[in-house]
Amino acid sequence: MPDWVDHQPYPSEIPDAEASCIANGSCRLLNDIQVSLCSPEQAWHCRTVQRVLTREGAERVAHVVAEFDPGFQRIEVHFIRVIRGNERIEHAKPEVFQLLRRETNLERLVFDGRLTASLLIPDVRIGDIVEVCVTVYGSVPVLGGRYVGWATFDGFHPWFESRQRLVRPRARRIFMKEYNGPPECAVATNADVEDSRWQIVGQRRREAEALTPPWSILHPSLQFSEFASWNEVARLLAPFYESDRLPDELAAEVDRLAVAHQDPAERAIEWLRFVQRELRYFAFSLGEGGLTPRALEAIWSARFGDCKDAATLYAAGARRLGLEACAALVSTTQGFALDEMIPSSDAFNHCIVRLRLNEVSYWLDPTMAVQSGTLQNVFQPHAGWALVLRPETTDLEKMGGDEPLHILHQEDEVTFGPRRDSPAILRRRIDCSFWAADGVRNAIANEGTSGYSQATLKEMRSLWPGAVETSPIEVRDDTASNNITLVLSYEIPDCWKPGDDGSRLDFGIASGHSRELQPLPPVQRESAIYLGRPRKFTSYLRLNMPGSWKGDGWLRRFEASCVQYSDSFRVDGRTITNSRELTVDAWMLPAKETEAYNGVAKKLQEDLLIIWARERFGKIRPWIGIKGRLFNGIRNVWHAIWIAWLLIIGLKVIVFVLR
């Protein structure tokens, strides 16, 4: 056991009212994390204590795993004990461990070389207490010994007692920021060392809320960093991304592209497409902590790389083309919260490129599938804040992504035949832009036009099982404006379905808006509501009816502060039209607007427009309802009475004449 580690007693029994720390058949008694910066190598110490409550709990607690990166870390297992009454059974023996290279991120095309020390403790019983104690030594080499880290008191999976400790030389300045009211710090100092401790006992469980913004810090937390500014982070990492020595073969490709395209904007976008097309994604990060790219020669010779490799390659080629480009670090989850954090190298999980042209910044991602459009309208997928990796960088830079983009417009025209068994003809046109257009192109590239058409037909048949495609899908791709149009034609036999009471016929058609917003439970919530990227959807439906139709129209509007939805319906003779529009103006909505949000979301779920009809003498006619049928019945009776009177009068006249 390291001499700096301090193990304090813990309660082996908890009050009956304490249920937050009980889950999955075990009681989480203690989570004790201690970090020491007083040795040449950083040390992270962890002790956990759990009581087994059920058989399922025994299965979970008995499996002990500890993960580390052998490139720069080593691990010591101090003890793994089963406490049964007064008996202590030790299981931490070197020969019982299995060292596994699990590569849990391999399906995400990430190979990081991390190892897992695994042990299945034998003979764990209900009522046992299992103690596990390990220390991991080492830190990411590129940081040069600087410390960055977090201490989090997880409210979703709380322990009865949670302890956090940081031991540091007083000569090392560690910056710290608190989030969500962590416990007060108890500090002890001597001449050279400061010992800081935080402790929570009986933390209440917090239930996860749907649609919480991914950048939200939800639990009591502490952020630590030895970086005094974002400039320090940029100056440390920038040199690793500034190589300009392209392999000869690649340099020749760049020069050919320069000859073919004289305009700087064209060079920038064509070079982006070249990298996206030629460099497949695969992260090969062994022993460097995921912060630095490989050499350009290694990247190009393998024709694969991760985000750091792709950004470095693009930036080097762009500079050869006479463009101002460099790598930039972003976070796909914490992007909007980065400016609220203290400077740190561990705030990022992705690397892209910042291109400057005519005093405008473009945020390009070479790891994406091949994108269409010009530099001005190519979709820039990342938002929030970025750290530009230049030595002169002083602060984070704000990216765009706040304006709603009109990404999809759908027009449907349905023509009905005169009879119930007449098939309906549906012609659908879908206009996609920005990321929606890129998504359709990539789907067609991967599946082929036929495969994409079959997938679309399958979706159609979920509503109309007998639908058939009457002509091949038509694709009109305007790559310059980054728009793609799909035209689809279908025949829908047996389109009229019996209504609930059997006397009515129904035809239903959906606009597809229902997937955009998810209704939330009608309870008070703490977190803001995540809406996704600002966007706009529109749809227009025209129904050509078999005869003059009847019905009242409407214009309905539903909105919250950042979400607007409108639905208009009109009947005009033989034509019925329905227009819908959804606009999301912001990435999130305040929690206090949950009710207004649900008002919009629930209306979107009512996506199916149903037209009512009836069959009369084999023909499709407008539905007239109970009152209409009663009126028709009375009218028919009067007609019958008048006809009867006319027949009687006619007979009398005939009889009179014959006399």
TrEMBL record:
Pfam (any one): DUF3857
Keyword Phosphoprotein attached: no
SUPFAM superfamilies according to UniProt: Cysteine proteinases
Sorted UniProt keywords: Membrane, Transmembrane, Transmembrane helix
Record carries keyword Transmembrane: yes
Transmembrane segments: 637-658
Residues annotated as domain DUF3857: 42-199
Name of the protein in its database record: DUF3857 domain-containing protein
